[in-house]
Amino acid sequence: MSKILRIAGRYAVTGLLTLFGITLLSFLLGHIAPGDPAYAILASDGVDAPSDEQLAMVRRELGLDRSFFEQYILWVGQLLRGNIGVSFMTSRSIEHDLLLRIPVTLQLSLLAMAILVLISLPLGYLLALHKDSLLDRIFLGITSLFSAIPGFLVAIILMLIFAEGLRLLPTSGFSGFSSLILPAVSISLSSTMMITRVFRSDLLSVLGEEYFEMARSKGFSYKFSVAKHAIPNAFASIVSLWGNYFVGILGGSTIAESIFALPGLGQWVLKSINSHDYPAVQAYVLVMGIICLIVFLLADILQMIVQPQLRRLN
């Protein structure tokens, strides 16, 4: 129990320090972004050439006339009270927009991650068992090809084939699970290829280890030896990569949401950036940072489950 408490305490301290860094970074990014929110607000109200007095008045109303650290302390104080802020452009609570859009982005990212896991593991296993076969060579060639194709181009190709051509899936908008299939495939395809390649390579490495040959010499069948010794060891090596790839998928969802017109966080934050809506951008960076922190924590826990020696090391 004391060992578990020590590990939990270390994660708690690390998490709090990381959370502090996330809040500081998100606030800093909002302030170093180019443009003047006061000018953007007046322009949206039809004032094309605002005077210095008008700009100063809007900045004073928004609290932008205060020092950076004073604004930061006030913002953190609001966060601790459960108030994530109010949008400069809509004067609406940012929490309302986040609660509407986070589910779409999370569903898209989780579906993309599910595609990655469900395809990469069995395919990597199949390719490892048929090393240097025609199937293996074809896949390695396809991997190199898709690694060079940008995600947005994959999304456009999928849209042209399955939405415009075959009309099997919706082109844009969110109308349920079917609306997420093409975006999820587009942002997970490259990662799926890479994880498959890594899992194949790790399996081949384990199959050449001495302990695997020893298991075979004891009379165990080849498939049993692979399932008992090779797969668990190869699987443990890619668990740590899942957190990184999920974060990459989460970031890639911004482009996919824009292309497929999904009402998620990505499309919302792009509009906020274009309109210089600092509180909305800060809230986005903060929320995404917290999600990434949770993902890396879960990846560490999963890795300790599949690799007991890490628990002993901790």
TrEMBL record:
InterPro entries per the UniProt record, alphabetical: BPD_transp_1_N (IPR045621), MetI-like (IPR000515), MetI-like_sf (IPR035906)
Domain ABC transmembrane type-1, chain residue ranges per copy: 102-299
Membrane-spanning intervals of the chain: 12-33, 106-127, 139-162, 174-195, 245-269, 281-302
A molecular-function term among this protein's GO annotations: dipeptide transmembrane transporter activity
Keywords: Cell membrane, Membrane, Transmembrane, Transmembrane helix, Transport
Membrane topology qualifier: Multi-pass membrane protein
Gene Ontology CC terms: plasma membrane
SUPFAM superfamilies, alphabetized: MetI-like
Subcellular location: Cell membrane
Gene3D superfamilies linked: MetI-like
Pfam families: BPD_transp_1, BPD_transp_1_N
Main location: membrane
Family: Belongs to the binding-protein-dependent transport system permease family.
Cited PANTHER family: DIPEPTIDE TRANSPORT SYSTEM PERMEASE PROTEIN DPPB-RELATED
Name this protein carries in UniProt: ABC transmembrane type-1 domain-containing protein
